[in-house]
Amino acid sequence: MAYRAPVEDIAFILQSVVPLAPVAATARFAEATPDTVAAILSEAGRMATEVLAPLNRNGDLTPARLENGAVRSSPGYAEGFAAIAEGGWIGLSADPEHGGAGLPQTLNVAVSEMMAGACLALQLNPLLTQGQIEALQHHADEAMKQLYLPKLISGEWNGTMNLTEPQAGSDVGALSTRAEPDGEGTYRITGQKIFITWGDSDVNENTCHLVLARLPDGARGTRGISLFMVPKYLPDENGRPGVANSLKVVSLEHKMGIHGSPTCVMSFEGARGWLVGGEHKGMAAMFTMMNAARLGVGMQGVAVAEAALQQAAAYAGERAQMGSIARHPDVRRMLACGRAEVFAARAIGLACAQALDLATATSDPECTARAAFLTPIAKSYGTDVGCRVADMGVQVHGGMGYIEETGAAQYLRDVRITPIYEGTNGIQAIDLVLRKMSDGGEMAFRLLDEIMDGAKAAQGEMPDLARAVWDAAETLREATVTMIESGQTDRLAGAMPYLNAFARVLGAHYHLIAARKGDEARKRLASIFVTRVLPRNAGDLAEARAGWADLDALPDAAFAGAA
Amino acid sequence: MAYRAPVEDIAFILQSVVPLAPVAATARFAEATPDTVAAILSEAGRMATEVLAPLNRNGDLTPARLENGAVRSSPGYAEGFAAIAEGGWIGLSADPEHGGAGLPQTLNVAVSEMMAGACLALQLNPLLTQGQIEALQHHADEAMKQLYLPKLISGEWNGTMNLTEPQAGSDVGALSTRAEPDGEGTYRITGQKIFITWGDSDVNENTCHLVLARLPDGARGTRGISLFMVPKYLPDENGRPGVANSLKVVSLEHKMGIHGSPTCVMSFEGARGWLVGGEHKGMAAMFTMMNAARLGVGMQGVAVAEAALQQAAAYAGERAQMGSIARHPDVRRMLACGRAEVFAARAIGLACAQALDLATATSDPECTARAAFLTPIAKSYGTDVGCRVADMGVQVHGGMGYIEETGAAQYLRDVRITPIYEGTNGIQAIDLVLRKMSDGGEMAFRLLDEIMDGAKAAQGEMPDLARAVWDAAETLREATVTMIESGQTDRLAGAMPYLNAFARVLGAHYHLIAARKGDEARKRLASIFVTRVLPRNAGDLAEARAGWADLDALPDAAFAGAA
């Protein structure tokens, strides 16, 4: 079945569950009127459904490939990219001064979800570019902004993030790429980078690499790292792509999925680069880019889950066997839980985006803290739901799910990268329980207050659901106190299950709001989430409390099978 | 890292947890002395590790392919198959009268696990052949046994199971393949079959298809189905492959994994076949074959989990980043839970095999009922653990896990078929709560008694673990009563989570025995299972009790995203 962008569900959430109204009420985002929002969602949905979704299989069957040192994209990807660029979708929330539309991130996140659901491998290109736009807006000097932002926003050029090196995975501080001043105000960058998404392509005219490298006087570790803009073609005096820079694509990775997205090994061989932000301040700029991308990746999970669920439901509905297998209790159980989790993950992601917008518009530190807290949850839970639902989609298809032609397997292979990139979900969980709870858990407790207030408010209308949400929040509060009081290693050992439990309570909270504001079907879906998904918290919270000692005590030999 | 067959773990389970001793104490299996068992495990382990494991990647990179109507196997597969055949592993538990070794199924299951862990795609060939041997032993006449069994046992020929048709997935009764008597005591078979594993190959000299088809007077539905032996080459008067039969491989499926296993679309075009068992008795014979295969598939899940876990642990141990990442709490948590689940699934599978052997040796209906009850649990839980641990293996590798060259992704792609074939796990759950509990839950209660007795016996030695296992069994007993008292649709809706919960209680039971009988590491692993895995039962049992009404009430439109 063809993907249909979930415009109605997103519109309902932005209307009633995580309303955009408070964002649109700010001076900064006054243009985000209900009419504008409706027009944008509908137009982006149409493009995703009609233009991008038909390209999804092409990328899988005909991966991007390297020919004479240049990447040749999958069939139709150039046209798909052009549609995204021409629609103005890349710069939807970018600064109007440089050609952006200046609209809320929330809208951008919603639109990105629809593009990713239609064609994940292609959507990665604008996603990375948007991260680069954000980094430049915050950290580049005016000349660089003037030169690069309009091109990135228009899609004439695209942006990449060059972080990982062969010898250093998540340990960025170990990087060995060097940057040497060349006496002309610029630098010469030398080193190899891996996992560079869309590191080269033929969909537009230039690729702009943001590269982390160490200056000669850079300290060891992350403190000595600087960020450089290293374009594939050096802009000439008119800002047009000119001389080729000294960099090349060494090879493309052979991956489990997202075959349409060229994942490059890049070699910088004295390539010319421009410093972005101050010397040795590279990590701050990179974090700006990564944080934006983390929420985006969470929504990629939601996106593929939506697509996989639609296909599985359509398949189950069409199967003649024993009537429609969608009426088969176990199949219906899987589909219903999947739908309930997709709603929860989408609402969490949009709530995170809403907090980002309010932070931008009001500079209220509470909004900043809220967005920071929700980001790892949105990333990790969204991508886990993506994998869970895509996996369920394969299962609902039975034997046909394992055959590549149905596309169910592609969703699973494609989405499987999302819990890994932009910081593995394990790293998100560490971020949550260490950095984001370094306030003594204050932000967590405020969110729990909000959730319990919501449950109290719903008590009269739907006492059973409200009670279950209240209880789950109360149990989570107790677990939060335990986490806060635990030593760091115990906390790290419990981080992932704790994050999962927090996500479900948030999801139940948004479901409860949806049940109150929505129709009968919304109430039923909320009840399914609370009855069938939320109780999984018992298992996760038991593990969150279990600490480190038993893991530490298990001899290493046990893992290798010699227990 | 190269796969190392888990000989020690299997030997420990057969020694102390699910002892083989009661099986070896029967007249039927008196040859299964401790020395013989040790020799067999060690020899099979050596072959798996040294001969089969090196072939695993070949199948993925160079899939089996169809050339001029014949299947050409992946490089090295013919040699690997020859090693399996020459080792006598195909007929390890087959009837000695026809060349088998007549040893317990339990040993066969253990050996099969090691072969599957080394090279799943290749192991499917003997697995299917073993199912066919079993079906012929029970249902064929003497002449057919004399002709086919020695060839199948020696590996000169192999066996397939032709069940599924394009228009009828799990609904076997809808099949349309016809069988017409040809007046010579044989039949002409006409129809198309899909998903035929190893439906053709060049690893040996003949392929014997057991084909379900309907005789002209066969009733509609499953009652009118008969089973036929349809060899690729008709045996001549000397029992050698002679004239080619009228059947062909139409195409091979392009699958997510197990690329080395040719999955054929078969066309029977008036092919000559011999009736197996009585007219219209095909389903009984096919069930013999499928039941044997179901346990085997469960062990395939365990097998790939073991392989994926070994690789992930080795990778984590080698990673220099932040020291070894195996000391990182979240990574260690994932590896430890994976190891604990692999042990549980393996013990359940071997317990099922033990019950089968005791049933064979003693004809005690209690043993038969026990094996029947444990089969769907072993299949479903084993394969779910397979997917869960292979998925974890990818995650532990981080970005490298998504790159095909590490092999972590192959394990996930390969094992993903196991929850689907030989009856999806949803079908296993239905089998458990309907057929296997049609005794009013008596078998379930007897197993729970045994588990609670075990917990009581452990109380003095390890009170915390014993208490947790006792409580979990008591909670499961209550849920079992609820299931029994529920209407059929409610029971079906709760079947899958109920099965999962039962598997974990069984797993905890075997861990508790291992903790009492084994060393310190065994105690620690048991504690990890009970602390971290068993509590997931709370979520599953909540869902098992949730029934059908809320699923029924959710409008179909909700699945498509229009909720």
From TrEMBL, chains A, B:
<dbReference type="InterPro" id="IPR046373">
    <property type="entry name" value="Acyl-CoA_Oxase/DH_mid-dom_sf"/>
</dbReference>
<dbReference type="GO" id="GO:0050660">
    <property type="term" value="F:flavin adenine dinucleotide binding"/>
</dbReference>
<dbReference type="Pfam" id="PF02770">
    <property type="entry name" value="Acyl-CoA_dh_M"/>
</dbReference>
<protein>
    <recommendedName>
        <fullName>3-methylmercaptopropionyl-CoA dehydrogenase</fullName>
        <ecNumber>1.3.99.41</ecNumber>
    </recommendedName>
</protein>
<dbReference type="InterPro" id="IPR009075">
    <property type="entry name" value="AcylCo_DH/oxidase_C"/>
</dbReference>
<comment type="similarity">
    <text>Belongs to the acyl-CoA dehydrogenase family.</text>
</comment>
<keyword id="KW-0285">Flavoprotein</keyword>
<dbReference type="Pfam" id="PF12806">
    <property type="entry name" value="Acyl-CoA_dh_C"/>
</dbReference>
<feature type="domain" description="Acyl-CoA oxidase/dehydrogenase middle">
    <location>
        <begin position="161"/>
        <end position="269"/>
    </location>
</feature>
<keyword id="KW-0560">Oxidoreductase</keyword>
<dbReference type="Pfam" id="PF00441">
    <property type="entry name" value="Acyl-CoA_dh_1"/>
</dbReference>
<dbReference type="InterPro" id="IPR006091">
    <property type="entry name" value="Acyl-CoA_Oxase/DH_mid-dom"/>
</dbReference>
<dbReference type="InterPro" id="IPR013786">
    <property type="entry name" value="AcylCoA_DH/ox_N"/>
</dbReference>
<dbReference type="InterPro" id="IPR036250">
    <property type="entry name" value="AcylCo_DH-like_C"/>
</dbReference>
<keyword id="KW-0274">FAD</keyword>
<comment type="function">
    <text>Involved in the assimilation of dimethylsulphoniopropionate (DMSP), an important compound in the fixation of carbon in marine phytoplankton, by mediating the conversion of 3-(methylthio)propanoyl-CoA (MMPA-CoA) to 3-(methylthio)acryloyl-CoA (MTA-CoA).</text>
</comment>
<dbReference type="InterPro" id="IPR025878">
    <property type="entry name" value="Acyl-CoA_dh-like_C_dom"/>
</dbReference>
<dbReference type="InterPro" id="IPR052166">
    <property type="entry name" value="Diverse_Acyl-CoA_DH"/>
</dbReference>
<dbReference type="InterPro" id="IPR037069">
    <property type="entry name" value="AcylCoA_DH/ox_N_sf"/>
</dbReference>
<feature type="domain" description="Acyl-CoA dehydrogenase/oxidase C-terminal">
    <location>
        <begin position="281"/>
        <end position="430"/>
    </location>
</feature>
<feature type="domain" description="Acyl-CoA dehydrogenase/oxidase N-terminal">
    <location>
        <begin position="79"/>
        <end position="156"/>
    </location>
</feature>
<dbReference type="Pfam" id="PF02771">
    <property type="entry name" value="Acyl-CoA_dh_N"/>
</dbReference>
<dbReference type="GO" id="GO:0016627">
    <property type="term" value="F:oxidoreductase activity, acting on the CH-CH group of donors"/>
</dbReference>
<dbReference type="InterPro" id="IPR009100">
    <property type="entry name" value="AcylCoA_DH/oxidase_NM_dom_sf"/>
</dbReference>
<feature type="domain" description="Acetyl-CoA dehydrogenase-like C-terminal">
    <location>
        <begin position="448"/>
        <end position="551"/>
    </location>
</feature>
